[in-house]
UniProtKB/TrEMBL annotation:
Residues 3-60 form the HTH lysR-type domain. It comes from Mesorhizobium waimense. It holds the Pfam family LysR_substrate. GO terms for molecular function: DNA binding; DNA-binding transcription factor activity. PROSITE patterns: HTH_LYSR. This is LysR family transcriptional regulator. Belongs to the LysR transcriptional regulatory family.
Length: 300
């Protein structure tokens, strides 16, 4: 069967983005071009790959099956073609990273501008989401996560600060009205601004001091999705709504400005920094190799 590689890539773009217009934006093509490519592919395969309505585009069972096998296969094709990058003076191509919002905000800004300046032939695409993903199936070259979220068959490279802390904070006005907690257990009597993952899991707040670990599950007037909506919780804390718990680096600018005041600082728990991870069972694309070397050489 003589199927065009471009048509397969068009199918992949639409499937991953969830629509033709969205796929066009992600791939830099046109919605009409993607639509024509998918129609051509469906005609060649003899099956419908998408159910289309005026409002939505959804994979058929046949399309879902093709997507599951095609993504990793095309990644391997790209990796094989990328071998020629080793003969360039400078690597070129697209590097796709899947990262949590915290890494996009707190880790990558110190790396990306210098990396792109050093490698003008590389285009960086960053997808920010909280759940751990199969980077190959998601069409990405590598990801950034913390060690407890890494799978054993992944190669991990330290990136960003090696020690981080979770910090609790509230506005001075809130603390003047409601008092300043002296022990994590005191939080149960305060308005706490909580977060939960997209999966629905809501992690407790964890504190540690002199070997004593205290986990609390406080309540409050606001619950946000961790990552994308965390700034709403910060804004509410600044406005005096309650106490927020987040990465120290995320809150530091507000400590420095006085908009927020540290709460229970002697109890703030430290944890190891994030890792860049990628599968060890495939050729490493030249843009990713350049990024790995840049991080290892101190670009972070």
């Amino acid at each position: 069967m003589n199927v065009e590689l471009g048509d397969l890539n068009a199918f992949l773009a639409v499937a991953r983005a969830g629509g033709f217009r969205e796929g066009a934006r992600a791939s830099g093509g046109s919605a009409s071009g993607l639509s024509e490519a998918v129609r051509r592919l469906e005609a060649q395969l003899g099956v419908r790959l998408f159910n289309r309505t005026t409002r939505s585009v959804a994979l058929t069972d046949a399309g879902a099956g093709l997507l599951a096998r095609l993504g990793p296969a095309l990644n391997e094709v790209e990796a094989a073609l990328d071998v020629v990058n080793g003969f360039r003076d400078q690597p070129a191509g697209t590097l796709r990273l899947n990262v949590p919002v915290s890494a996009a905000r707190l880790v990558l800004p110190a790396i990306v501008p210098q990396f792109l300046a050093a490698y003008p032939g590389i285009r960086l695409e960053v997808i920010a989401e909280e759940g751990f993903v199969d980077v190959l199936a998601a069409g990405c070259d590598a990801g950034i996560r913390y060690d407890e979220r890494l799978e054993q068959d992944m190669i991990a490279v330290a990136i960003g600060p090696r020690v981080q802390r979770f910090a609790a904070a509230a506005s001075p006005a809130y603390l003047d009205r409601h008092g300043r907690p002296e022990h994590p257990g005191d939080l149960l009597g305060h308005a706490c601004l909580r977060g939960r993952f997209a999966s629905g899991a809501m992690p407790p707040w964890e504190f540690e001091r002199d070997g004593e670990v205290v986990r609390v599950d406080p309540t409050g007037p606001l619950l946000v999705t961790l990552g994308g909506a965390a700034d709403l919780a910060v804004d509410a804390a600044i406005a005096g709504t309650g106490i927020v718990c987040l990465f120290e680096d995320w809150l530091r600018p507000y400590f420095e400005s006085g908009a927020l005041e540290p709460v229970l600082e002697p109890w703030w728990q430290s944890f190891s920094g994030p890792f860049l991870y990628y599968p060890g069972r495939r050729l490493v694309p030249a843009p990713l190799r350049a990024f790995i070397d840049f991080v290892k050489d101190g670009g972070a």
